[in-house]
Design goal:
It is a single chain. Helices cover 46% and strands 15% of the residues. The model has no long low-confidence stretch (mean pLDDT 93). Helix 6 runs antiparallel to helix 7. The chain is built from 7 helices and 5 strands, in the order H-H-E-E-E-E-E-H-H-H-H-H.
Length: 192
């Protein structure tokens, strides 16, 4: 156990029993406990294997390369349609976790083997993401914007494309694009 991570378990108001159980399971598999992104993260040879996170409706183990696991028990969930590599196992009670302990350990050991084998998740390239029509028109009309957007890292480009595309109405997409043009021109990502 890493004392730097203890606060996460102490401060938990909801899911405390459940996340303590998940912590015990992860540590029993020989993983190193670290604090990353403000949550407990369990690593093997400095490679992320699984983390614990909580939501209103459930708590979860998130397997970083979950898409590469066999998922024999069909328990892995893709958080959103845009998540490419990670997969969750969701829980709503400590009893559920206790019943699945053996399976969870098997999944963790499989995830460790994925890391040992050096397997990589083939990620979708930025150019494969849809550019909303409203943004494409802006890029075509504004050479500086097009140059600035192309200069962004692929991750920042994807962030904008996903954010702009998520709006259901053209009017909303236009407003989002307009609001973020200065950031793009400044070479900043959506959350910078």
């Amino acid at each position: 156990m890493n004392p730097k991570v203890d606060f996460y378990f102490i401060k938990a108001k909801k899911w405390q029993e459940e996340i303590e159980k998940l912590r015990t399971i992860a540590l029993s598999c020989g993983l190193t406990e670290e604090l990353k992104w403000g949550v407990p993260c369990y690593t093997f040879n400095k490679n992320n294997i699984v983390l614990i996170h909580v939501f209103k409706e459930y708590c979860a183990f998130l397997f970083f390369k979950g898409v590469l696991l066999k998922d024999a028990k069909k328990i892995l969930v893709q958080q959103t349609e845009h998540v490419q590599a990670a997969r969750q196992v969701r829980f709503s009670s400590a009893g559920e976790i206790a019943k699945m302990e053996k399976t969870l350990k098997a999944y963790i050991h499989e995830a460790i083997e994925v890391e040992k084998a050096g397997l990589k998740v083939p990620l979708k390239k930025t150019k494969e993401f849809t550019v909303p029509e409203e943004f494409q028109k802006r890029l075509d009309k504004n050479k500086a914007l097009k140059t600035a957007f192309k200069a962004l890292t692929p991750g920042r480009q994807r962030g904008y494309l996903l954010y702009f595309s998520a709006a259901k109405q053209s009017k909303t997409r236009e407003a989002r694009i307009e609001k973020h043009i200065p950031q793009i021109l400044d070479g900043k990502g959506l959350d910078d």
